Amino acid sequence: MESTSQTSSKNQPIAAVLLSRAHDPEETKRILTEKIQQRPLFLCPSSPPPSDARAARRREREKKRLSRKKTLKPKPLSANERRKLGLYDVPRSGQRYALFEPLHQLWLGYIREILGNEIHTGGEGAASKLTSADFHGAEVEVVRSGCVSRVGLKGIVIKDSRFTFEVVTRRNQRKLVPKEGTVFRIEVPLGGVPTATVEEGQSDEKQQQQQTEAEQPKMIFEVHGEQFQFRSADRANKKFRSHFSKIL
């Protein structure tokens, strides 16, 4: 009998022998069938990665970057791109003095508001406020310049760049005046806000308006262009120190 039991235990798998020691034969058979013999075996791939695994990872990163880029805001244009597109250029049809006269009237109200009561007294307080002001729309006149032919040039500033003033004259001409070596004169009427410009057909009323504006008291400023060689946006946050100018 002992030899028969030993022979039968040898023919059985080790799992069945171990289960038979703890369970009865029927329970042992059920556990062996359901939990061991019929249990699914999940295999993990053990094959080596493909030869272009680095390129595949790079493509995956590029795909994620593109998907993230679509959700972000578009990149703003650089200064060179805006210059190539001509965003700063004024078309020839728009180089008319009458088009910029309303801008000049707005600038007069803007500069009066900035200067306040110091527009009547002047001094260092008015000078410090004037240095940080924006000159787009100001009517400037060249009173001194290294180039004699520019003296007397007068027009409305349509572009205030770092080194130049771009103006439109009363003859509807666009002039580019460098700031270096040039002194500009700016006149600001002290009275109320001048009346709006009239149409071209009403020449008599326009002449009367110009006469009344000429009779108004004015505060006259002289701006040394060499001290304004900054962009208007940078000049607003810059602190200027008072010093003697080399230009007399």
UniProtKB/TrEMBL annotation:
<dbReference type="GO" id="GO:0030677">
    <property type="term" value="C:ribonuclease P complex"/>
</dbReference>
<dbReference type="GO" id="GO:0033204">
    <property type="term" value="F:ribonuclease P RNA binding"/>
</dbReference>
<protein>
    <recommendedName>
        <fullName>Ribonuclease P protein subunit</fullName>
    </recommendedName>
</protein>
<dbReference type="GO" id="GO:0005634">
    <property type="term" value="C:nucleus"/>
</dbReference>
<dbReference type="Pfam" id="PF01868">
    <property type="entry name" value="RNase_P-MRP_p29"/>
</dbReference>
<keyword id="KW-0539">Nucleus</keyword>
<feature type="compositionally biased region" description="Basic residues">
    <location>
        <begin position="56"/>
        <end position="73"/>
    </location>
</feature>
<dbReference type="InterPro" id="IPR023534">
    <property type="entry name" value="Rof/RNase_P-like"/>
</dbReference>
<dbReference type="InterPro" id="IPR002730">
    <property type="entry name" value="Rpp29/RNP1"/>
</dbReference>
<comment type="similarity">
    <text>Belongs to the eukaryotic/archaeal RNase P protein component 1 family.</text>
</comment>
<dbReference type="GO" id="GO:0006364">
    <property type="term" value="P:rRNA processing"/>
</dbReference>
<dbReference type="InterPro" id="IPR036980">
    <property type="entry name" value="RNase_P/MRP_Rpp29_sf"/>
</dbReference>
<dbReference type="GO" id="GO:0000172">
    <property type="term" value="C:ribonuclease MRP complex"/>
</dbReference>
<feature type="compositionally biased region" description="Basic and acidic residues">
    <location>
        <begin position="21"/>
        <end position="37"/>
    </location>
</feature>
<dbReference type="GO" id="GO:0001682">
    <property type="term" value="P:tRNA 5'-leader removal"/>
</dbReference>
<keyword id="KW-0819">tRNA processing</keyword>
<feature type="region of interest" description="Disordered">
    <location>
        <begin position="195"/>
        <end position="216"/>
    </location>
</feature>
<dbReference type="InterPro" id="IPR016848">
    <property type="entry name" value="RNase_P/MRP_Rpp29-subunit"/>
</dbReference>
<feature type="compositionally biased region" description="Polar residues">
    <location>
        <begin position="1"/>
        <end position="12"/>
    </location>
</feature>
<feature type="region of interest" description="Disordered">
    <location>
        <begin position="1"/>
        <end position="78"/>
    </location>
</feature>
